[in-house]
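Pilot study result, target chain (285 residues):
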Amino acid sequence: MFISEPLIFVELHKTGGSHIGRCLRTILDGHQQGKHNIVPANLHHRFILGSIRNPWDWYVSLWGFGCDGNGSVYHRTTRRFDANYYWRQINKEMGTNWLSPGQYGRQLLADVNKPVSLWRASYKDSADPEGFRAWLKMILNPARRFDIGEGFGFSPLAQSNGLLTYRYFKLFTNLSDKLYQNSTLSNGVTLSDLWATHNITNFIIRNESLEEDLIEALRCANVPLTEDDIALIEQGKVKKTNTSTRRETGFYYDQETIQLVQDRESFIIEQYGYAPPPLSGSGIR
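Predicted structure:
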């Protein structure tokens, strides 16, 4: 999270945040507080900026990042136990000092039964669409929701929605601990109302039009931009940062996995009018 007087930027993983953050740190006086942090309530009055990405592309990027040995999802799914995670991290991810004994026990039981070998196998080759599809079916399977960590398994959202929707509501709303307590979150038809009520953002940048959206967002936040500032922002069109090794998105999908993302990320897809990629690999039938 980047904090400045004119605005706060909340970084949703793999949505162009590295370039956005680099630009903001150059253009504005501010400071970085962690990376994927939740905005504290006393800062909700400021102009809050977020970012989003086409879900079909987002999952390929997340998986490709894992194939390179990177990312919290990769590390959580390919390790069975991590004492530091239980006692220092998961509670912070969920915005609390401690979990209940029952919650710790539930996570520990899930980790005992985590199919670590299958997760590891799915990350072996970033050019293998079958590996991606196997990974996608696991990460979007509610039965595997505790494998991912970060509190995902404890949220009712995980019953009918994917990780992208969970992170979106976790970072961009004031739901806080209600994200883990409100049973109506398991019903996707309520998400539009929840977003309208609990959204804390003023502008969401689309990764697909990142440079144009960032310029517009800064102007909406009344940040004056020089020609050099605009040139810095537009470098992102040719100079990508924090990328993963992979091919084009449509190469990895087939009709079954296209539909799987459609079902689990329907809120994001409908909210931003996203469309699935054209199939270009072995998934074409």
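One observation from the pilot: Strands lie at 2-4, 7-9, 30-32, 47-52, 203-206. A full batch analysis is planned for the follow-on phase.
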